[in-house]
């Protein structure tokens, strides 16, 4: 819900993929998880989630802090709602076994 949303949670597997510590990850704008040319595609995905509530078929290239590229496949991205059904953010769930290093 921020103008430039930051990550606020990650599993140990996600921290390893992005090669970040917890403190680095939760201070990182989520847009920086994609390469610059892929950011428009990422925004289209987020707009789709915002309007539909979720998608269950997301695939996209992401980049770690050291520049390693990897493809997330078959991810589910969904809105996070509070008790009053107000959108508070978005989340992504994917299987680490579905990640392909490029």
Description:
The chain is of the alpha+beta class. The chain has helices spanning 12-18, 22-25, 39-52; strands spanning 54-63, 69-81, 87-93, 100-101. Strands 1, 2, 3 and 4 form a 4-stranded antiparallel β-sheet that branches. The longest helix is centred in the middle third of the chain and has 14 residues, at 39-52. It is globular. The model has no long low-confidence stretch (mean pLDDT 90).
Q: Which series of helices and strands comes N to C?
A: HHHEEEE
Number of helices: 3
Overall pLDDT metric:
90
Spatial extent as radius of gyration: 13 Å
Shape: globular
Given the helix and strand composition, which structural class is it? alpha+beta
Give the percentage of residues in beta strands.
Answer: 25-35%
Counting DSSP E segments of at least 2 residues, the number of strands comes to 4
Query: How far do the termini sit from each other?
Result: 31 Å
Poorly predicted runs are none
Helix content: 10-25%
Biggest β-sheet, characterized? 4 strands, antiparallel
């Amino acid at each position: 819900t921020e103008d430039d949303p930051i990550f606020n949670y990650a599993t140990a597997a996600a921290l390893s993929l992005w090669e970040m510590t917890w403190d680095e990850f939760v201070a990182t704008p989520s847009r920086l998880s994609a390469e610059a040319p892929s950011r428009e595609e990422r925004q289209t995905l987020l707009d789709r989630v915002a309007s539909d509530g979720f998608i269950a078929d997301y695939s996209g290239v992401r980049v770690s802090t050291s520049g390693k590229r990897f493809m997330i496949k078959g991810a589910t991205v969904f809105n996070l709602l509070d008790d009053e059904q107000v959108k508070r953010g978005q989340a992504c769930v994917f299987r680490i076994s579905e990640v392909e290093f490029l």
